[in-house]
Amino acid sequence: MLTSGGSAVCVYHRGRCVVDLWGGQRDAAGHPWLVDTMSPSFSTTKGVASTLLHIMVDRGLLDYDDRVAEHWPAFGQAGKEAITVRQVLAHQSGLYHIRQMIDDAERMLDWEYVIHAIERTEPAHPPGERTGYHGLTYGYLVGEILQRVTGQSFAQLVAEELVGPLGLDGMFVGAPSSELHRAAELMWPRRMMRPLIEARGSLSGSLRRASAPVERVASWFGVQLDLESIVDALAPHGIDRFDFGSEETLRASIPAANGLFTARSLARMYAALAGGGELDGVRLLSEATLDRATRVQGEAAERAVIPFDMRWRLGYHGVFTTRGSPAQAFGHFGFGGSGGWADPSRELAVAMIVNSGLGTPFGDIRIARISAAVVQSADRHPQRRAA
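Now predict its structure.
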């Protein structure tokens, strides 16, 4: 049976949920998407990980300009002793090259293995020299820092710092087996990563042929793709066999790539950020810390992996829509089309989850169109809510 998949969208404006929609099929058998259906949401998870770290900065457990090794001593080897938390959050630590750190994508299910691999690894370039998207390593870096300063697992932190206080109906990064019946099935080609699994050194053969159209488009915008860094960051050995939708994967914590969310939960988290750090009397962050966390960071002289200016904040990127980029908006989109973002200037938060589609590492045209429509609607009602 052929199905087109499903999705859910949620919008908060001025602290109120004003849109809450879902529809389509949650699996290949055609079962309908339900009110409580969650979907694996890939890099959208990075926004959740970043928010948790900002909460801990707000509590004084660490600061953005601390050296990572102050909190994680074994990290400070192999040329990493001076890397700061800020450089990790801004994708400037030079530690994106997961293909060189682990021998198979299945290792991503073993937290301790990946952490020890990171500890032994030298940066791909001097920290701060390039902005290179840490597509898969970001979550382990931020997650281990969080675990070191709190003494709690990443999954516990999600539950205790976000789900509980905000009353979220579905947000997991390391889901318990009892919740997996709510997970939508990923309905994508099993070999969608095939173009990225050629040997790193040659960048020839099928990889070069597959990437040629992308390179041509990039050249129209005056952008040069660094295919070697793309492969290093996004294609660990065996990635074409790795099942992001399996029960084993969803039970693990991969905080850069395997969040299991409802759109409602993502939107509610971002609504708190859009409201100056507070929603319904629950304060996640002080306004001062939120301001620090969401300032655009200085671009490094060079870029790797993603050749475009993503207007990186500390763990969040700028927001693109089909009608431009709201200047104050920030969040994180994910491979396949999911995403969540906040715009404090409009007191606006938007989230979308999907289980079909490919797109880019940062969402696709669907969330761009929805975001544009939401911004346009919010701008028709610009007055702020009463204090």
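The radius of gyration is 20 Å.
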